[in-house]
């Protein structure tokens, strides 16, 4: 299971975050984009035994994530309603990096065992960064109440899940339900774009795959959170990593970001995608 989790985290570090950052048309992110490949080299820590060397590499990653957090602080001064999804996306790698440093050091951060910390790293790359970024993207390109709902419920659900780590399974279940509502809304909005006829077949297939996989994978998330809160039978963590984790990482995040990158690259930044911190 942990080999699979590490592979998924590497996908987040090396593919999803840098790909997502290129969707943000803002010159202020230039430093973060330049720094990120160096920080992502810290992914080697995932394959080293816990200890000072692994922790050192994790800190390298944390520095790059810290640059995004610093930019998010500037970003948040531009109106929370328009920017909350972007801010959530930009701070999520920082949350993941904090958990990663502690896990690689063998330190029980806030009392959480290494396994929980490792899963936190994965969660905040995909449900945190990728989902919030794509929710914010929809709010930019197709404003309306559904896009507004996605841009609010995805960040709110992500934060509630995190709060549930500290307060109990029922808060985590509430977070899973809110996050699922937001993710399903993101999936539906993505599906409407995929079926709009505006894009080539490969782009439409990538967006459509992202939407369908997301809808299915979040059913598993709810079933697991419900089981944890109530004690009813539910999938094991190993099963969740192999199904929900793989689906969210590859089917949703990688396909979704690749699809939107194709839209942006073929139609020009700012024509269909107006993803700018100043908007």
Nearest-angstrom radius of gyration? 18 Å
Principal-axes shape call: globular
Number of domains: 1
The secondary-structure class comes to mainly alpha
What are the secondary-structure elements, in order, as H or E? Answer: HHHHHHHHH
Low-confidence stretches: 269-279
The percentage of residues in β strands lies in: under 5%
End-to-end CA span: 42 Å
Explain how this protein is built.
With 279 residues, the chain is mainly alpha-helical. Helices cover 78% and strands 0% of the residues. α2 packs antiparallel against α3 and α8 packs antiparallel against α9. The C terminus is likely disordered. The termini are far apart. It has one domain. InterPro entries: YndJ-like.
Please describe the structure with a list of short key phrases separated by commas or semicolons.
279 residues, mainly alpha, 9 helices, globular, YndJ family protein, transmembrane, transmembrane helix, YndJ-like, membrane
Which helices and strands appear, and what pairs or packs with what?
Blueprint: H1 2-21, H2 30-40, H3 52-75, H4 80-105, H5 114-141, H6 145-167, H7 169-194, H8 201-230, H9 237-267
Helix pairs in contact: 1-2, 1-5, 1-9, 2-3, 3-4, 4-5, 4-6, 5-6, 5-7, 5-9, 6-7, 7-8, 8-9
Protein name: YndJ family protein
Transmembrane segments: 6-24, 55-72, 84-102, 114-137, 149-167, 173-191, 203-226, 238-260
Organism: Actinoplanes aureus
């Amino acid at each position: 299971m942990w080999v699979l989790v590490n592979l998924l985290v590497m996908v987040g570090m090396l593919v999803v975050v840098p790909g997502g950052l290129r969707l943000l048309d803002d010159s202020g992110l230039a430093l973060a984009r330049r720094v990120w490949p160096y920080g992502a080299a810290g992914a080697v820590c995932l394959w080293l035994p816990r200890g000072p060397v692994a922790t050192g590499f994790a800190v390298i990653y944390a520095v790059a994530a810290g640059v995004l957090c610093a930019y998010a602080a500037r970003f948040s001064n531009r109106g929370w309603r328009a920017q909350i999804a972007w801010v959530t996306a930009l701070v999520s790698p920082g949350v993941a990096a904090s958990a990663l440093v502690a896990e690689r050091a063998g330190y029980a951060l806030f009392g959480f065992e290494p396994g929980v910390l490792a899963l936190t790293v994965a969660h905040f790359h995909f449900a945190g960064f990728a989902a919030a970024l794509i929710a914010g993207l929809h709010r930019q390109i197709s404003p309306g109440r559904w896009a507004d709902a996605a841009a609010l419920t995805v960040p709110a659900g992500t934060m509630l899940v995190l709060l549930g780590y500290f307060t109990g399974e029922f808060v985590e279940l509430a977070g899973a339900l809110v996050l699922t509502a937001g993710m399903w809304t993101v999936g539906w909005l993505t599906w409407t774009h995929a079926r709009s006829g505006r894009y080539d077949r490969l782009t439409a297939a990538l967006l459509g795959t992202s939407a369908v996989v997301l809808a299915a994978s979040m059913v598993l998330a709810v079933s697991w959170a419900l089981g944890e809160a109530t004690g009813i039978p539910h999938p094991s963590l190993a099963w969740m990593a192999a199904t929900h984790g793989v689906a969210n990482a590859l089917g949703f995040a990688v396909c979704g970001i690749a699809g939107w990158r194709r839209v942006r690259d073929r139609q020009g930044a700012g024509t269909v995608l107006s993803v700018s911190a100043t908007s």
